[in-house]
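Duplicate of #3305? Posting structure anyway:
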């Protein structure tokens, strides 16, 4: 599968669009498609529409766009987003959860951000981050993180928990009233158990 990733170099912007979902990659791919379409139409479909020097300029611009983007993509080929998580990511989650349960919000957020650098599609870590942001009063950031998670595929197993968190955000202070009973001092369990469960 890895060699097939290099086929994305054929179309400008495609490595970032296909492998990373980048908006800039989409913009570059569309710009190349438009310039190529105009050059083809002006050359073979309506040859008299544009004068020959302009047609040559269109083909030159299209070739330059392709060449520059292919060289830059080959030199800084974006890695694909990791799907699974390894032992290092699991260890970071356990540390983040322990810090969250101990109400050490700064350390918990730091660990979660480190984990999301390693495994950006970890829905459980994203949910924990959204919950943490709500608990520390950063409600707009929390809502944004939770809504982004709800729209992504990695949030599918956590739909119920996401809906509950969004309801707590919408409820305001009334939603926070029962929140203290959820966080339990489970530090011993969190450091020994290999399984991962989201802390609400």
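Output from current build:
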């Amino acid at each position: 599968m890895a060699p097939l990733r290099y086929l994305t170099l054929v179309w400008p912007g495609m490595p970032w669009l296909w492998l990373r979902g980048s908006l800039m990659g989409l913009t570059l791919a569309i710009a190349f498609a438009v310039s190529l379409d105009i050059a083809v139409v002006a050359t073979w479909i309506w040859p008299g529409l544009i004068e020959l020097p302009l047609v040559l300029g269109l083909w030159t611009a299209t070739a330059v766009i392709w060449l520059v983007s292919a060289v830059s993509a080959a030199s800084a080929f974006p890695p694909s987003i990791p799907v699974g998580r390894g032992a290092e990511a699991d260890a970071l989650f356990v540390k983040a959860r322990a810090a969250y349960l101990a109400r050490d919000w700064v350390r918990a957020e730091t660990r979660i951000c480190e984990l999301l650098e390693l495994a950006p599609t970890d829905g459980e870590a994203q949910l924990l981050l959204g919950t943490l942001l709500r608990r520390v009063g950063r409600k707009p950031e929390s809502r944004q993180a939770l809504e982004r998670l709800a729209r992504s595929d990695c949030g599918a197993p956590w739909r119920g928990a996401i809906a509950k968190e969004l309801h707590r955000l919408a409820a305001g202070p009334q939603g926070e009233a029962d929140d203290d009973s959820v966080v339990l001092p489970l530090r011993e369990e969190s450091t020994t158990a290999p399984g991962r469960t989201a802390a609400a």
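Confirmed duplicate; merging threads. The chain has eleven helices and no strands. Confidence is low (pLDDT under 50) at residues 180-195.
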